[in-house]
Specification:
Radius of gyration: 17 Å
CATH topology of the largest domain: Beta Polymerase, domain 2
Number of strands: 4
Number of domains: 2
Shape: globular
Mean pLDDT: 86
Low-confidence stretches: none
Length: 151
Amino acid sequence: MNDHSLKADAETGRLVTDLAYLLGTTKKRVLSEAVAAYAASRMPASHERRPFLDLPVRQRLALRRDELLRAYEGQGASDVRLIGPFAAGDDVDLVEILAETDIMMGGDAVDVLAAIAREILATRVEVTSATAVAFSDPELLKRLRGESTPL
């Protein structure tokens, strides 16, 4: 990913710097989340997002990757990875995701995470809980991680 400079007036620059300090994050993260919130408030309803839906699934994921990761983080998910044919680069419309899930959510975690990803990406999504697989089949988890790519 290429980083580019962003010019802002001095007052905005100070505000972003102060927010980053107070929130314990980076200026880049503050700007990224601010832009995402700004865009989300102005995006048409799901059924009206035709230009986004016309994009290939891989491009949709690239555009909304950070939003998806933030939503997953909010649900206690981490180490989010792509698995299956989509991760291998095949042109398919099913996105398969492997994620460490909050153990307190139990089996509901995969349903919640899949629904979030379906809403954000507007495509079919299946989520596998690395936490659950670690308990039931550690060798399968090792294989899945080996074949996966980080989101």
